[in-house]
Specification:
The structure holds two protein chains of two kinds. By secondary structure, chain A is α/β, with parallel strands linked by helices. Helix content of chain A is 34%, strand content 24%. In chain A, helix 4 packs across helix 5 and helix 4 runs parallel beside helix 6. Classes of the chains: A alpha/beta, B mainly alpha. At the A-B interface, helix 4 of A face helix 6 of B.
């Protein structure tokens, strides 16, 4: 490991201590308790969990969209969640991609991608258009630019969600089940593109992004993600690298790796 | 023993049971009303707070949304209001003219009647109800669907306040829309009223009619009309947005939320109207 890599990997991005997550639909139901987890810069985490175990709630809380039920949680040293306008610049260093994209139905794909730029940045219309075109191009969405989400297949909506999250050049990207319901072609594209983002893609000015993805199947992420966690039965297990995952005796880990 | 229990169970008299039933019912209704008032009141405070704090933020995003809402709650409803104004003029003059003629007051009272009925009461209230029916209900369905589809969380993830994006443009658009439509409805009704009077051979010259209207109107009418219509617009927008947005909805709950929003908006508008009557009478 070289010096610069040591420096980047030792910079904590997300830090959770005694962190607890409640279900969004029913706040009385606990998804995870006593989570102690640190995500360092340039790491690529995959958080595995069976379906309906609260992955989305966990990630939305980690992304500061929901308030934690308990515990301490910081993002780049700032206490989360951030709702105040004064700390919004800090908050926007974190991008979030929802399962299925969750685009605004009244806007076109291009308008959805442009929305965070138009709302937060001081860029001119021409600069915004150029940035949106660049994002449409790298996510292969040019043909769908002027379509509304309802007229676009779910797999393309998911990509539009990714393009929208990348619009403001975040340093950290959280992705909720990005491979759910995708065919082989889209799955291959996602794995390849996220790998490039983790190493440094031109869309992020060549800077490596810190990635956290959730998945109900860990197999596609072998050799791609470099850190693994598991969520099961209200507990969050920090497994570490793939050798630790392969040797784990946890039933949930074995289930998520089963062919 | 069993017989005793049966006797005990059937012991309460029908009178006591009925009384208990009604007190429970009234109690439940009062609590539901207070909870709704609390929820809508808090949502209104949040909305006005966001409106003031973020007035100059992201204008390039919010301004087109406001324009769209003004078009939806104003411009696009003009044909319907043209019809409504013709109908109102016909109804009021059709009913009032024969009675006023009996006492020989067609040269004196028709203008006053039009001002009292149309400008002070029916104009603003009818406009509010029509806009509620056409746009308010659509608000609940649109926002309820947006909430159910996760658009609120989506905006929060982008650092965009959902109240700023969804509610503020609707409040401004509906306040401006209802005010403008009320003015059009009043002008149309006053004009169509004279037309119907003319068709009914009421001996009233246009100049006399105009003088009667001008004589009956005071500066207070203009001020209270502006305040009242803007208040109706804000109330309808806030109540309908509250029911669409404030709590997570499943798609099958949207119709019930719409019914609740319409009921509460009507009650709120009537109460506001009553408040303005009191203000008018005391000033």
């Amino acid at each position: 490991m070289n010096d610069s890599a040591t420096l980047t990997t030792q910079t904590p991005i997300l830090e959770m201590r005694g962190f607890a997550v409640a279900s969004m639909k029913n706040p009385n139901v606990s998804v995870a308790r006593d989570v102690n987890w640190t995500v360092n810069a340039s790491e690529f985490w995959v958080v595995g969990a069976p379906q309906h175990s609260g992955k989305s709630d966990f990630l939305m809380t980690a992304g500061g969209i929901l308030s934690p039920a308990d515990g301490e949680f910081t993002f780049l040293g700032e206490t989360m969640p951030i709702f105040e306008e004064s700390r919004m610049t800090h908050r926007l260093k974190l991008g979030f991609v929802f399962d299925g994209g969750q685009l605004l139905g009244s806007l076109t794909i291009a308008e959805n991608i442009a929305l965070p730029l138009r709302y937060h940045s001081k860029m001119t219309s021409a600069e915004i258009e150029a940035r949106v075109n660049e994002l449409l191009e790298v996510t292969e969405l040019v043909a769908w630019a002027n379509s509304t989400p309802l007229n676009v297949a779910r797999s393309w909506q998911q990509r539009a969600g990714l393009a929208r999250a990348l619009a403001l050049s975040p340093e950290v990207l959280l992705l909720d089940s990005p491979l759910t319901g995708l065919d082989v072609r889209h799955t291959t594209w996602w794995l390849s593109f996220l790998g490039e983002l983790a190493k440094g893609h031109r869309i992020a000015a060549g800077k490596p992004l810190t990635l956290v993805v959730t998945a109900d199947d860990l197999r596609p992420w072998r050799r791609r993600a470099n850190r693994v966690g598991c969520l099961s039965g209200g507990k969050f297990l920090v497994l570490g690298d793939w050798s630790a995952v392969e040797s784990s005796r946890e039933p949930v880990v074995q289930e998520l790796l089963r062919d | 023993m069993q017989e005793t229990e049966t006797t005990t169970l059937s012991a309460p008299t029908p009178r006591a049971g009925l009384s208990r039933f009604y007190t429970d019912l009234i109690g439940r209704r009062v609590f539901t009303f207070l909870l709704a008032l609390h929820g809508v009141g808090a949502f209104a405070l949040i909305t006005f707070g966001v409106l003031l704090r973020k007035f100059s933020i992201a204008r390039s995003v919010v301004r087109p949304l406001v324009a769209r809402e003004i078009s939806r709650a104003g411009v696009k409803l003009l044909p319907m209001f043209l019809f409504a104004s013709l109908a109102m003029g016909f109804l009021i003059i059709g009913q009032a003219a024969p009675w006023v003629s009996r006492v020989g007051g067609e040269n004196t009272f028709l203008g006053d009647i039009m001002v009292i009925v149309v400008v002070r009461e029916l104009g603003p209230l009818l406009t509010a109800f029509l806009v509620l029916a056409r746009v308010g209900t659509a608000n609940v369905v649109e926002l309820g669907t947006a909430r159910a589809m996760g658009e609120v969380e989506s905006l929060e993830a982008l650092g965009i306040d959902p109240v700023h994006y969804f509610v503020v443009p609707r409040v401004i658009g509906m306040a401006v829309g209802i005010f403008s439509l009320t003015v059009y409805l009043i002008l149309g009704t006053l004009g169509s009223g004279y037309l119907w009077a003319f068709i009914q051979d009421v001996p009233l010259q246009p100049g006399d009619y105009f003088n009667q209207l001008a004589g009956a109107l005071t500066y207070l009418d203009f001020i209270l009309l502006t305040l009242k219509t803007c208040a109706f617009g804000c109330i309808i927008a806030i109540v309908t947005c509250y029911h669409g947005l404030a709590q997570p909805l499943q798609l099958d709950q949207i119709s019930r939320a719409t019914v609740r929003a319409v009921g509460q908006s009507v009650i709120a508008c009537v109460l506001i109207d009553a408040m303005f009557i009191i203000i008018y009478l005391t000033l």
